[in-house]
From TrEMBL:
InterPro entries: F-box-like_dom_sf. The lineage of its organism: Eukaryota, Fungi, Dikarya, Basidiomycota, Agaricomycotina. It comes from the Eukaryota. It comes from Lentinula edodes. This is F-box domain-containing protein.
Length: 69
C-alpha cells in the first residue's frame, strides 16, 4: 500500500499492531514508536497508558486531548 500524499509505502494496521504488541513492555520504544505517525501513535497509545493514575481533573483533560490529537 502507498500513501497517496507522498508515495511512501504504508504498513497495514494489523502489521503495526503486531510490531507494537512485540514491544509492549518497553516504554522507551513505545514512546518512540508513537512518534512515527498517527497510525503508530494510535496503536501504541493503549500500551503507553496501561498503568496511569489520574488524580486531578486537569490531568484527565490533558490525557483526553492527547487521545484526540
Amino acid at each position: 500500500m502507498f500513501n497517496s500524499s507522498n508515495d511512501r509505502p504504508e504498513l497495514p494496521l494489523e502489521i503495526v499492531e503486531l510490531i507494537i504488541e512485540s514491544v509492549d513492555n518497553d516504554q522507551k520504544t513505545l514512546r518512540a514508536a508513537s512518534l512515527v505517525c498517527a497510525i503508530w501513535r494510535t496503536a501504541a497509545f493503549p500500551y503507553l497508558l496501561h498503568d496511569i493514575l489520574i488524580s486531578e481533573e486537569a490531568d484527565y483533560e490533558r490525557i483526553k486531548k492527547l487521545n484526540s490529537s
